[in-house]
Amino acid sequence: MTQKPTLLAAAAREQGNALPVWFMRQAGRSLPEYRAVREGTAMLDSCRRPEMVVEITMQPVRRHDVDAAIFFSDIMVPLAAAGVGLEIKAGVGPVITDPIRTAQQVHELPELHPEAIPDIAESIRGIRAELPADKALIGFAGAPFTLASYLVEGGPSKDYARTKALMAADPVLWDELCGKLARISATFLRVQVDAGAQAIQLFDSWAGSLAPMDYATRVLPHSGRVMAHVADVPRIHFGVGTGELLRLMSQAGTEVVGVDWRVPLDEASRRIGPLHAVQGNLDPALLTAPWEVIAERARDVIRAGAKAPGHIFNLGHGVPATADPDVLTRLVALVHEEGPALRAE
Ligand code: 1CP
């Protein structure tokens, strides 16, 4: 008998007291077995080798017994596959060869054709073949705003000044840029879902830098178009520092809203309303605290999440590179062992 993954039940607000757990950036730098596999291969190259992608995706599932695998890739992979010049520099992040500075560059931004990424479908099928039936495979993509921020700034940014200036000064060009990025992300997600991804997460990691009015008019409609393209699977919508945007983000066409550590989940759910599950939100910085402190904070997260109509346990953002993998394993065990009783309180 195959059991429906608890993550899918939670997204459908039908989990009862079961509590699924996975971690953003669970596949990656905190694992020695990841560093061993990646040795000598550039980040973007590793994302295009199905054997490597399957292995890296499965590593945290084997080690931590998390309830979901997240496809090992990067939000910049579909842009690179479309032909945008970029590199992912170790210790920095994405770096764009020719950052967008002119309207012409927006007009010339290439499309992504599914035929350009046969390896993505192959990787997803390979993961599904190895993943136990009670665990879910999550596909993902970057949301148009977060992708635009890299293309316009040229790399990671603290204030997104050029991006916000473009959005405010030339909304028509901004909408053209985000419309194109929405199509690229939608294609990337569609290929993953068609190959077997059972849920998706749209990462709008940096949307929290925006005022709600700008988010509502210039960002949300584009993210909504991406979501509409994969409406046949549960969708998770995540950003950092989005306390003021949570309700708007729930309106993009999503079943689950990802919440960072700044807003307790009961309050987040109150802001979002009864029709959405929440995901989160232990502060990743706490992973270096003594175990009893982590355990108490995790219990607080579980109790607050029990007040929402559905809850997927996660961190408030990605696993830090310095995290001790054994702490993550212990955290998964705590969520599984204590979660049901805490939810029933
Ligand atoms: O050499 C390396 O190991 C590079 C580090 C690394 C890794 C492991 C990068 C560079 N990307 C990834 C993988 C990755 N990226 C995953 C894998 C699956 C998992 O979660 O385990 C995912 C989901 C992403 C998505 C991603 N990339 C996001 C959204 C998630 C988030 O953290 O908010 C973002 C913003 C990126 C851009 C990016 N890629 C890499 C870095 C260091 C960054 C962030 C740079 C910045 O601060 O702007």
UniProtKB/TrEMBL annotation:
Residues 20-29, 138-154 form the Uroporphyrinogen decarboxylase (URO-D) domain. One of its GO terms (molecular function) is uroporphyrinogen decarboxylase activity. Substrate binds at residues 25-29, 74, 150, 205, 317. It comes from the Bacteria. Its EC number is 4.1.1.37. One of its GO terms (biological process) is protoporphyrinogen IX biosynthetic process. The keyword Cytoplasm applies. Pathway: Porphyrin-containing compound metabolism; protoporphyrin-IX biosynthesis; coproporphyrinogen-III from 5-aminolevulinate: step 4/4. It is an enzyme of class 4 (lyase). The record marks 74 as: Transition state stabilizer. Pfam families: URO-D. GO terms for cellular component: cytosol. Its main location: cytoplasm. It catalyses: uroporphyrinogen III + 4 H(+) = coproporphyrinogen III + 4 CO2. It is found in: Cytoplasm. Catalyzes the decarboxylation of four acetate groups of uroporphyrinogen-III to yield coproporphyrinogen-III. Belongs to the uroporphyrinogen decarboxylase family. HAMAP family: URO_D. Homodimer. This is Uroporphyrinogen decarboxylase. It comes from Raineyella antarctica. The gene is hemE.
